[in-house]
Amino acid sequence: MSTIEEIAKVLNNSKSVTIFTHVRPDGDTLGCAVALRRALSLKGIAAEAVNEGPVPERFCFLEEMKEVSRTPRLDAETLVAVDTSDISRLGRHEEIFRAALGKRGKVTVNFDHHISNTRYAQYNFVRERASNAENVLELIEAMGVTLDKEISDALLLGMCTDSGSFSHADVSGDTFRAAAKAADGGGDIHTVYVESMNRRSKARAQMYAEVVSKLRFLSDDTVAVALVTDELLKKYALDQDATEGIVDFGLSIDGVEVSICLLEVRKGQYKVSFRSKGKVDVNAVARMYGGGGHVLASGCMLFGDLEEICDKLRYAIWQHAGDL
Ligand SMILES: [Mn+2]
């Protein structure tokens, strides 16, 4: 594995850089990408940030998000993936990244914080932190770039969203030290928190209330399952991004050890998000079905009807339940 200093050197010596983010982008992958894009351009290096889809509305309060494009425009020398545990998480851009692997004149970098990272690039840096933005902050410092307001806000967005506004179990002194640097750099945590995490449309509030009112409880009320059907999203004219955060509600219930959100992506196919209070390793649970993530937060895809899926989940959690 490479060090932050080695990767800083690779980036500083690059003529051009494309920064890739993962599918269904969150605040961390986008915050990391736009902060790094700006740091590179402040050094006079041609740089762009890309995602296969649109930037979710709740992150668009940052001007820098305008710099995120749907397809690479540069034929960049260096390709960097941020916050992306596996190359397949690049979605439509996977082939572009894959084509650069081992190709002369191309450099690939994988810069991440997921325990499940598959080390798919030429240069890999993976260090567990509450957010990858903490790692990117150190990378930008190692590149010799002074944090400005735009970089600081983008990094705070990553830290704030991935850490559940600095509340998750994996938040440490490192998180706060990084956040303090971003605050000193001009970052505004109040705006970042309110815009990205603490506002919602009326339609979303109503959809949320309906999902919560129908929560299912499994395994002696230790597992809460929220179901978001396609029909429900259509009823409120919402897209799948609107389900962000629902899984966290289940975990707030006394006695619940694992909270699950099932999002129906098409008939018989569900995107599953897991949260754990700590007794169950949900990274291991998700891995049973080809997914992964962190010990306390992970995801996978499941196929079948709802009852089959609940049986699978019950079984998988029981397998990894420890003293539950
Ligand atoms: Mn992340």
Rounded to an integer, what's the Rg over CA atoms? Answer: 20 Å
Let me know the number of strands. Answer: 12
Helix content: 25-40%
Structural class: alpha/beta
Q: Structurally, how many domains make up the residues?
A: 2
Shape: globular
Mean pLDDT: 96
| Total DSSP helices | 12
Main sheet specs: 6 strands, parallel
For the record, the CATH class of the largest domain is: Alpha Beta
Fourth-level CATH superfamily of the largest domain: inorganic pyrophosphatase (n-terminal core)
Order of helices and strands: HEHEEEHEEHHHHHEEHHEEHEEH
Q: In which order are the strands of the major sheet placed?
A: 3-2-1-4-5-6
Which stretches are low in confidence, meaning pLDDT under 50 for 5 or more residues running? Answer: none
Terminal residue distance = 36 Å
The CATH topology of the largest domain is inorganic pyrophosphatase (n-terminal core)
CATH architecture of the largest domain: Alpha-Beta Complex
Strand content: 15-25%
Q: What ions, cofactors and ligands are bound?
A: manganese (II) ion
Secondary-structure blueprint:
Blueprint (H helix, E strand, L loop, with lengths): L3 H9 L3 E5 L6 H16 L3 E5 L17 E2 L8 E5 L11 H7 L6 E6 L10 E4 L5 H11 L6 H14 L10 H12 L4 H9 L4 H12 L2 E3 L4 E6 L1 H6 L10 H6 L6 E9 L2 E8 L5 H6 L4 E2 L3 E7 L2 H14 L5
Parallel strand pairs: 1-2, 1-4, 2-3, 4-5, 5-6, 8-9
Antiparallel strand pairs: 7-8, 9-10, 10-12, 11-12
The chain binds manganese (II) ion.
